[in-house]
Amino acid sequence: MTIIPHHILVPTDFSMYADRALAYAVRLATALQSRLTLLHVIHSTLLEVPGMETEPTYHTYLHELEETVSQTLQGMCQQLRDAGIPGDIAIVHGVPYHEIIEIAAAKNVDLIVMGSHGRTGLAHVLLGSVAERVVRLAPCSVLVVRETEKQGA
Ligand code: ATP
Ligand code: MN
């Protein structure tokens, strides 16, 4: 069993909740000398619509989306490196909870740090559906940073 999380996965949907989870992970990584992987899952359900794969505007849209995601994650990763934390990025297509647990297994991460909520959900539910499924199914421990968490100095 790993006591110290050497490799921490931070899945982000670019919401303020995920940003808070990242801030938490940065504190942990600094204290424990861990490395971080930032992951975004592009939820490409539209690909399942018949005929969509031959739709040129859809490809342009996906390409631009990938480009924006990549630049944003790389910017975040640079901030990590500036803070002395080794970081890398991952961008995959699929169903978010599923890809998060797949990447956690494939990259052999020790801990997932994620938000309790995200961009699409209702703040009054206890946990978003992605957070809830990752907690249940992940191959490693999961730290869910709560919306109401006190952010210490
Ligand atoms: P729901 O999606 O069920 O409507 P929600 O959007 O409020 O609810 P979740 O999607 O469960 O809540 O988000 C919780 C956390 O999961 C986010 O803070 C983020 O860390 C992670 N997450 C959610 N979606 C993605 C995604 N597409 N890629 C990577 N991480 C994600
Ligand atoms: Mn969501």
How would the blueprint of this fold be written?
Layout: E1 7-11, H1 16-32, E2 35-42, H2 56-82, E3 87-93, H3 96-106, E4 111-115, H4 129-137, E5 141-145
Could you characterize the architecture of this molecule?
The structure is a single chain. This protein has 153 residues and is an alpha/beta fold. Strand 1 (7-11), helix 1 and strand 2 form a beta-alpha-beta unit. A five-stranded parallel sheet has the order 3-2-1-4-5, sandwiched between helices. It has helices at 16-32, 56-82, 96-106, 129-137; strands at residues 7-11, 35-42, 87-93, 111-115, 141-145. The longest helix is centred in the middle third of the chain and has 27 residues, at 56-82. The protein has four helices and five strands; from the N terminus they run βαβαβαβαβ. 42% of the residues lie in helices and 20% in strands. Residues 13, 118-121, 128, 130 line the site of manganese (II) ion.
How are the strands of the biggest sheet laid out side by side?
3-2-1-4-5
Report the helical percentage: 40-55%
Structural class, from secondary structure content?
Answer: alpha/beta
Low-confidence stretches: none
Along the chain, the helix and strand elements come as EHEHEHEHE
Strand content: 15-25%
